[in-house]
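May I ask for an example protein's residues together with how it folds?

___
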Amino acid sequence: MNTSLDFYPIGSSGTPWGEAERTEWLSRQTRHRSYESEVVSKIERLRDRFDVEEYGRLEYGDERFPLLAIRSRNWNDDLPVMLVTGGVHGYESSGVHGALEFVDQHAAGYVGRANLLVAPCISPWGYERIHRWNANAIDPNRSFYENSPAQESAALMRLVAPLVDRVVMHIDLHETTDTDETEFRPALAARDGKPYTPGGIPDGFYLVDDSEHPQPEFQQAVIAAVEQVTHIAPADDNNEIIGSPVVARGVIEYPLKKLGLCASVTNATYKTTTEVYPDSPRATPEQCNTAQAVAVCAAVDYALAHG
């Protein structure tokens, strides 16, 4: 019988991980970069133009991570609220730095037109380890539901709770990377004791709409803007992207709330999840960051124009 060691070095075939396997997995995780110097320092430099608040604090062993959000300085309850989130998967760098680029370079243009709330790095432990999961081998982006087992998800839900019905647009910034296929999907199969089936990685940018409440024109407005910066992912031979049917150019759909995804945390009319492909030979890190920032601008602009 094949074991999960054929595709992942922890666990055995058909058996979900227990405490021993999770402990072994955690022991293999290495800190590669600094949340403090690469993210917090950038947020601190925005304090002269925006309000910055600590909405939670992660605790993993002897490590502490402040969770920071950026708000429009002159918050006006008469204006629509636009929510931007990034770094739910800490390894997806352009989600974090694209959100910060949007605030630094574009947010001032919305003063007096919208209230902006930006949480640029929801999973700082994952950011430092360049990992999809948190330290408990939990995917925060499948954990946005009541009594969430993920500190990261629970903290964001507390932050937005007073605004759930006031947020008009929520854009959640992500990446699809080659390591999704080489590391994270095999790890997920091993963790859950399920078979691992190899898949493909789309080359280009795409969006995930809410299948329960789709907004196709909104999605296409974002696609049209991003296409000026980077290429859009084509459908595969099955007219799919990562196993989901393509419903329009560069767009697939998920049931956001059913899956516990970040984009489901409010009752916003306009919701989308971006997916940038940073491993493409046709894209640079700078392009990826800019694509995220442009996507945010397009999303906010559309929501403002259509109410």
